[in-house]
Please model this.
Amino acid sequence: MERLLFIVSQERRELYDTLRQVLAHEKGVDIILDRRRLRRRRREEPPAADRRRFGRRSRSHEDVEIHARGWTVVRMP
Model:
């Protein structure tokens, strides 16, 4: 069964509380607050060389949605 994961920005606590109340009895639905912090790297220029081959846990679409709307939904297998 597919699960839905709602990720809500720390700044939208009232939305998080409302979703928890409204979707409390829905199976396969989880609501969490975004636990990530701001990026530590504050330089304007990119680093000299990025040694990583692949982006870890890259979810740029979801990042944009959280920043713009304050929440996103991720489908989990």
Notes: Residues 13-22 form the longest helix (10 residues). Residues 1-36+59-77 form one domain. Residues 4 and 66 are 15 Å apart (CA to CA).
